[in-house]
Amino acid sequence: IVFLYCYKLYVYDIIVVLWCHFIFFFFQAEDGIRDAQESRGLGDVYKRQAEYHCRGVIIPDAAHRAVTSEQIGALVALLQLVLEWREMIDTSPYSQHCGERIEWCMINMYHICDWFIKPLTAREQCSWVELVATGPQLPAWFVSHAWLTEFHQTVEMLAWHQEVHQLPGTSPYWV
User: Fold this and answer.
1) pLDDT band (50, 70, 90) for residue 51
2) Per DSSP, what are the bridge partners of residue 5?
3) What is the pLDDT of residue 95?
4) Cβ distance 143 to 24 under 8 Å?
5) Mean pLDDT of the region 30-48
6) Does residue 62 sit in helix, strand or coil?
7) Residues 72-99: b if buried by 16+ CB within 10 A, e if exposed
């Protein structure tokens, strides 16, 4: 469950876009998966990132594709590196940052999925977790969040949760 405090509401045809403040809630994990879609991303920009060259493991059961804090940390490092040296422009007409350069302080899951996850997983036709994991990762925690949330806030929230519960970096989350 995500509680939203909305201060702007835009309607574009059928799509409703909410710019909101978010409160995150953690739940014991269940299963789920998002469908793969075509990428519009960066192609071979990631060739220098050895951990993304090939699939690390095949995990047939999507319910076992949790992500650890350490793996999120590696993704954060990649995002910050690429955003530092590559100009990427937000082209979503539904974004409050449309036409602006995507920066760490504003990147969200829509940007990450389109510009990073899809290009990284396209060759192997796999999930991102299958690129970075060495085996199945059954989630211990389910994180409900909105994709429009700035990713640095999601990362900060996960770090807070990990600290409060004194969890190791290998704790698996379904995000």
Assistant:
1) low
2) 21
3) 85
4) yes
5) 41
6) helix
7) beebeebbeebbeeeebebeeeebeeee
DSSP state of 89: B
* Sequence-distant (≥ 6) Cβ neighbours of residue 167 within 8 angstroms: 69, 161
**175 touches 24 (CB < 8 A):** no
d(CA 105, CA 83): 10
The rounded distance, in Å, linking the Cα atoms of 105 and 70 is: 20
Q: Cα–Cα distance between 126 and 120 in angstroms, integer? A: 9
Supply the pLDDT for residue 137: 96
SS3 132: helix
Beta strands in 124-165 (DSSP E): 141-144
The secondary structure of 108-122 as a DSSP string is BHHHHIIIIIHHHHH
Decide the pairing of beta strands 141-144 and 172-174. Answer: parallel
Residue 87 CA, distance from chain mean position = 19
156: tokens are 């900060």
3-state secondary structure of 104: coil
Backbone angles phi, psi at 8, to 5 degrees: -145, 145
Any idea how long the chain is?
Answer: 175
Tell me the two tokens of residue 69.
């804090």
